[in-house]
Amino acid sequence: xxxxxxxxxxxxxxxxILVCGESTAQPFPSRPIKFVxxxxxxxxxxxxxxxxxxxxxxxxxxxxxxxxxxxxxxIIATEYVKNGEHDGYTxxxxxxxxxxxxxxxxxxxxxxxVKDFIPIALFETHPLIFAxxxxxxxxxxxxxxxxxxxxxGKLFYGSGASPFQAAxxxxxxxxxxxxxxxxxxxxxxxxxxxVAGEVGMVAVEAPTAMAQLRAGKVRALxxxxxxxxxxxxxxxxxxxxxxxxxxxxxxIGLFAPSGTPSAxxxxxxGELAVILGQDSVKERLVAMGYDTAAGNxxxxxxxxxxxxDVEKWTKVLRDLNIRAN
Length: 325
What we know:
Blueprint: H1 2-24, E1 33-37, H2 44-60, E2 64-68, H3 75-82, E3 90-95, H4 96-105, E4 117-132, H5 141-150, E5 155-159, H6 162-175, E6 179-183, H7 187-195, E7 201-205, H8 206-214, E8 219-223, E9 249-257, H9 262-276, H10 279-287, H11 299-319
Parallel strand pairs: 1-2, 1-3, 5-6, 5-7
Antiparallel strand pairs: 3-9, 4-7, 4-8, 4-9
């Protein structure tokens, strides 16, 4: 008899567990989501994080808060998301600086951008532009090389971040020229210096440079994408100018910490794919200076690209001995 009572008790307990489990299992999302941004308010990652956060919140029916965790070249925010709950409610707005270049800039990182994160979607991509002040007697990259070879050590170039320095130093090495790096704290100060003629050349992101290019304050010589940038169709690529396979593409996207259920990642990706496919969103991104083609990439495709980018630029940075300042 006691055995029967024990069996009955076990049955009741299991039934209660199942009922409670079913009652607490709620479809994702059932509460607000948080986007963690690696950089301060007002910058491109923050702007895009808020833009896509609002669009995604409308589709999911839950609010999305944006939190800026600034410092250490994006390390603070990235480590915070890595160490948080892996439930889809805390996501990283990841820029290619912390997610691609930091492994080559630092001997030790508290995260592995490939192993510790799952890509959900890329919001945009954009190349760098090699541009010069109008006083520089070069209207092409080949002419710039000739000028630099005739004036070794006399052409100064500005860059606002280590990735921009890395791309220019790689070009400098491949071209066999002597140009001098002038570091700036951000793209806008470096571009401002080029506009003022304080440096003859600048490596700057396409979105930052578009207004000054259109105004003729600086002249674009080449873009670092393998194919021509849609917003600057008349500007050749570095590869076209004689440097085969020269490419640097920067991006901003959304990442989940590893261990996040695939069903949640796929749901978020699916919703963002719809948003990224909307004409109004594409038009807004283009107006901001971004390429929208990456919106079609699936998480697995992004993961392959991400891994390749990290491997390539870690080697370049270490070969060039470029370290974090």
